[in-house]
Specification:
The protein is of the alpha/beta class and 456 residues long. The chain has 18 helices and 14 strands. A 5-stranded parallel β-sheet has the order 2-1-3-4-5, with helices on both faces. A 5-stranded parallel β-sheet has the order 7-8-11-6-12. A two-stranded antiparallel sheet has the order 9-10. Strand 1, helix 1 and strand 2 form a beta-alpha-beta unit. Bound molecules: adenosine-5'-triphosphate. The site of adenosine-5'-triphosphate has 18 residues, from helix 7 and helix 15. Keywords: ATP-binding, DNA-binding, Nucleotide-binding, Transcription, Transcription regulation.
Length: 456
């Protein structure tokens, strides 16, 4: 190990002591005597060294105190090398900033170990002060797991966005955490004690979106036997989160724009105008800009929603977070299912890292959930992961794994074919497959399929 570099200082009265003491040999310590300062009031200039050793006798206590008060030793810790001092004198030096003390007559071994320890502590302190400051993220943001720079940069903006009452458009592929992000904005805002209401516009049949958002009057449809207030009324005072806002039909977009501009709306079939004090956050996983170009999304509404924006990166662009996220989900599901699963094998991590994650964090979450359930021991192995395009092939998997994998592949293929047949219309695709629209939608999201790609 490199020697600890020490400068040794003493008052002019102790020049001889300085010379004698500095000429002693200490293994692992390099002593550099520092010319004593004739002016006791002026501090000895700092010099690059690991530790400052300050020789102090009873007669030079005042000088030593002045040196410590003046801080001329720079950042390096000071060790008082004492001769004839009482305990309370030493205490006084420590109180003024000396890091340690050693009696002048002490042996080499004691001095060397103390100096090593001080240097290590000092290096640690320097490294910590050079490290970027710990992210001052609010605990509410801790649900959003991730350390990668492109992700953290977006998270860091959330407290500022929360402080404003303007609209925020949250962009990102499916499963990247847009809703979690919107929730954080709401719960950090002054509206936190008021309702949080989320609605997925893509999951609602287009003819029902407007009524769902703004309610309807009695008799507005044949089945509308009762007046019904919509989600906008439910969100009064709070935040309204419109997920997949790009799937909103153009007619409803006009109503939403009025709602944003005037804070007013009319329930379907009603002549009465209602007022609502609601902040609107919106999310889109598509290219909303190109929908504007194509005339499928109102430009004025786009600008209104997009006053502030957040753009969450897809998981494939923050793969350095994969181990952190995987262990997070592993721990969570092991706790939920009361399973003693606490590790991911290296092969399992490699398998996760080789996959492209079109469904992003949500897909990873589902994958780890299944893995915890399927896993037999304490470690999740590569074979416990049901991921499509397994390079292992089915033949070498246990039956239950091979079956789960085949089901995954089938679901994806089936949903994609139905969307192709129905030109991306979820309602029609759900009907054609004999499934509830919501259940069909869940499958679309689970596999990270972009339904808009199939629209004509
Ligand atoms: N950074 C993250 N840390 C922990 N969990 C996350 C993170 N991002 C997403 N998730 C989890 O992934 C799932 C999907 O998240 P969320 O619903 O917020 O995504 P989304 O982008 O709104 O998806 P979609 O566009 O499909 O609605 C949730 O269960 C959420 O808890």
């Amino acid at each position: 190990m490199e020697p600890v570099e020490c400068r040794v200082i003493a008052a002019p009265a102790h020049l001889q002591w300085l010379q004698d003491w500095s000429s002693r040999g200490y293994p692992g310590v390099l002593l550099r005597p520092w010319s004593a300062n004739p002016n006791p009031a002026a501090p000895l200039a700092a010099d690059a060294c690991d530790v400052t050793l300050m020789l102090v006798g009873r007669d030079t206590l005042a000088w030593a105190r002045q040196q410590l008060l003046a801080g001329g030793q720079g950042d390096s810790p000071v060790v008082a090398v004492t001769r004839g001092l009482t305990g309370s004198m030493v205490q006084g030096l420590l109180a003024l900033g000396a890091s340690d003390f050693v009696a002048s007559e002490h042996g080499a071994e004691e001095l060397t170990t103390r100096l090593w320890r001080l240097r290590e502590q000092q290096r640690h302190r320097c490294a910590a002060s050079r490290a970027p400051p710990a992210s001052p993220l609010h605990p509410l943001l801790s649900k959003l797991v991730g350390n990668s720079l492109n992700f953290v940069r977006q998270l860091e903006r959330i407290p500022t966005l929360a402080a404003s009452d303007a609209g925020v458009l949250i962009l990102g592929e499916t499963g990247t955490g847009k809703e979690l992000c919107a929730q954080a904005i709401h719960y950090l805002s002054k509206r936190a004690s008021h309702p949080w209401v989320a609605v997925n516009c893509g999951a609602l049949p287009s003819e029902l979106v407007e009524a769902e958002l703004f309610g309807h009057a009695r008799g507005a449809y044949t089945s509308a036997h009762q007046e019904r207030s919509g989600l906008a009324a439910e969100a009064e005072g709070g935040t309204f989160f419109l997920d997949e806002v790009d799937s909103m039909p153009l007619s409803t977009q006009a109503k939403l724009l009025r709602f944003l501009q005037e804070k007013e709306y009319r329930p379907v079939g009603s002549t009465k105008t209602r007022h609502a004090d609601v902040r609107v956050l919106a999310a889109s996983n598509g290219d909303i800009g190109s929908l504007v170009q194509q005339g499928r999304f109102r430009r004025d509404l786009y600008y209104r929603l997009n006053i502030l924006s957040v753009s969450l990166p897809p998981l494939r662009e923050r793969m350095d977070d994969l181990p952190l996220l995987s262990h997070h989900f592993l721990k969570r599901f092991a706790g939920e299912f009361r399973r003693e699963v606490n590790r991911l094998s290296t092969a399992a991590l490699a398998r996760l890292a080789a996959y492209s994650w079109p469904g992003n964090v949500r897909e990873l979450e589902h994958t780890l959930e299944r893995a915890v359930l399927l896993c037999r021991g304490e470690t999740v192995e590569a074979g416990d992961l049901d991921l499509p395009e397994s390079p292992d092939g089915c033949a070498c998997l246990e039956f239950r794994h091979a079956k789960a994998q085949a089901v995954q592949a089938f679901e994806r293929m089936y949903i994609e074919r139905m969307l192709l047949l129905c030109q991306g219309n979820i309602t029609h695709a759900a009907q054609a497959s004999g499934k509830d629209r919501r259940a069909f939608w869940q499958l679309v999201r689970k596999h990270g399929i972009d339904a808009a790609r199939y629209r004509g």
